[in-house]
Amino acid sequence: MLENLKDSKKAVGIKQTLKAVDRGNAEVVFIARDADEKLVDELKRACLKNSVEIIYADSMHQLGKACNIEVGAAAAAILKTISNP
Predict the structure, then answer these.
(1) List of residues 6+ apart from 39 with CB closer than 8 A
(2) CA 58 → CA 9, 12, 30, 64, distances in Å?
(3) Which of 26, 49, 52, 24 minimizes the C-alpha distance to 13?
(4) pLDDT tens per residue, range 71-84
(5) For a Cys staple, 32 with which of 18, 38, 60, 62, CB 3.0–4.6 Å?
(6) 37-53: b or e for each residue (b if 16 or more CB lie within 10 Å)?
(7) Is the pLDDT of residue 51 over 80?
(8) Do 76 and 8 form a contact (C-beta atoms < 8 A)?
(9) CA-based torsion, 65, 38, 20, 57: positive or negative
(10) pTM greater than 0.85 (yes/no)
(11) CATH 3.30.1330.30, applies to 2-28+36-79
(12) Is the alpha carbon torsion for 9, 15, 18, 22 positive or negative?
């Protein structure tokens, strides 16, 4: 599922991912297993509240690479696509 991040519209980082979840724009959220629990706790709660699936990446490095960035990422989300009627 991580490979889907490369070609998808996404939010990267805890703050941007949390905003996407709170706005109802996140389809699925990825959280790195080695991310600081204090930082991702609020994001996890928001995902539970909004029924957003959480998928865990092995590391921040792996998640950053999947997002096409050269640094690690604690969290990312694939954003919902909005179709025009």
Answers:
(1) 14, 74
(2) 21, 16, 10, 11
(3) 26
(4) 999 999 999 886 54
(5) 60
(6) eeebeebbebbeeeebe
(7) yes
(8) no
(9) positive
(10) yes
(11) yes
(12) negative
* Residue 38, amino acid: K
Confidence of residue 5 (pLDDT cuts 50, 70, 90): confident
Identity of the residue numbered 84: N
CB 18 within 8 A of CB 10: no
Residue 85 has a pLDDT of: 54
> The tokens of 68 are what?
């096409």
The DSSP letter of residue 69 is -
One-letter-per-residue 3-state SS of 10-66:
EEECHHHHHHHHHCCCEEEEEEECCCCHHHHHHHHHHHHHCCCEEEEECCHHHHHHH
Q: Give the whole-angstrom CA distance, residue 32 versus residue 25.
A: 20
